[in-house]
Amino acid sequence: MRQELLSLPKTLADDVARNLVMVARLIDEDPEEAYAYSRIALRLASRVAAVREAAGFAAYANQKYSEALAEFRAARRMTGSADLWPVMADCERGMGRPERALAMAGEPEVRRLDKAGQVEMRLVAAGARRDMDQLDAAIVTLQSPELASNSVQPWTARLRYAYADALLAAGREDEAREWFAKAAESDKDGATDASDRLAELDGVEFVDALDDSEEIEETGADAGAGTAASGTDSDQASEAEAKSADVETGESSSPAEACEPRENGSDQG
């Protein structure tokens, strides 16, 4: 990317680079903002392949699949690389054309992809099969040496997760549970929610401990307040009964009070 930006005047190259950096920083957390930065970069340097690619991914993250596909095609024409082929096929899926995505999975460009790209293409093809309600075909599509391998690669968790999800959709729950477990085991970066799906199959329900603690504290405080109030009410009732007895008998409820003179003659018996 840096090499591509050298074709621009330095000041312009710096401005474009800043916008591309912001696209990369925001695309996962705030895709709309990332998209806004990508449009600025595109306006400044639309003839730079890296800019077109970044604009494509920003549009893709915002589900603007037609726009993303156009940008990916432009970047591919500029570089001649097949690296974007899987995501281009996924754009076809996003536009409601799974048949086109499947056709792309059989094109010669797939053979030019590295192992990660080929796995990605397999995931897209399986997704297209599911879009067409071909669940069994989707399962078969994902069955590959990469899925069977015990080694953990960057794509392993996502591949196992997709396979487990396809099995579950086909009603093969026991097998799905096994593969969700394998996906969770290999998902060190939390790229999937395999652990949650596994817990759901096992009937485990997660409860927010913090919320429970706060509820317990509030309940305890209310109970304490109720006890204090009850105690106060009881004391007041006892005091009222004692005063009533004093009025009726003319005697004080305590020796100290009996020794004190009445200030008001009407209080005397």
Describe the structure.
By secondary structure, this protein is mostly helical. The chain is built from 15 helices and no strands. The chain has helices at 2-5, 10-26, 31-44, 49-61, 65-79, 85-94, 98-105, 115-131, 135-142, 145-148, 156-169, 173-186, 194-201, 209-249, 255-259. Helix 4 runs antiparallel to helix 5 (65-79), helix 11 (156-169) runs antiparallel to helix 12 (173-186) and helix 12 packs antiparallel against helix 13. It starts with a helix and ends in a 10-residue tail after the last helix. 32% of the residues are buried. Residues 209-269 are annotated as: Disordered. Residues 209-220 have a biased composition (Acidic residues).
Q: Distance between termini?
A: 105 Å
The poorly predicted ranges are 242-269
> Which class do the helix and strand fractions yield?
mainly alpha
User: Percent range for helical residues?
Assistant: over 70%
Q: Please tally the helical runs, counting DSSP H or I stretches of 4 or more residues.
A: 15
Percentage of residues in DSSP E strands = under 5%
Total count of strands: 0
- Report the sheet with the most strands, covering strand number, pairing sense and barrel closure: none
Output the radius of gyration: 36 Å
Mean model confidence by pLDDT: 85
Large-scale geometry: globular
Order of helices and strands: HHHHHHHHHHHHHHH
